[in-house]
């Protein structure tokens, strides 16, 4: 049997992202809000593969994540933008290996995803806005960005080192 390449294995790990969203381990969450697993998977992929691959991967991972819930808001637009932006950063700049850089990029990514979902939900609610909804959305946005930024240096650097730095 032919051995799977590391790139193919990384793509298979991408299929685990929706399941991680559904599992939402309690020990990796802040008051029930877990990290943005799509950001943690997309960041290393887009940095190494470039902007077009990043956009396509953002679309695909967004479709997988959006298939797990029935809400009207979608993560796809933000993930496509992030895939393109991170792909350009990865191609035009020096190697992004610093823990601070990975954490900051993941924080920005999780913030953009949370903000686009919040804006979409406000638009879908139309004139039925409730102050409790905004307080909960702000809590979810802050908790998701914090936990994603804290996990990014660990998870993204391991993914970068194992799957991309030593291409075979």
TrEMBL record:
One of its GO terms (cellular component) is plasma membrane. InterPro entries: Cell_shape_determining_MreD. It comes from the Bacteria. It is a multi-pass membrane protein. Keywords: Cell membrane, Cell shape, Membrane, Transmembrane, Transmembrane helix. Signal peptide: none annotated. The chain crosses the membrane at residues 54-87, 99-120, 140-164. GO terms for biological process: regulation of cell shape. It is found in: Cell membrane. Its main location: membrane. NCBIfam families: shape_MreD (TIGR03426). Belongs to the MreD family. This is Uncharacterized protein. It comes from Prochlorococcus marinus (strain MIT 9211).
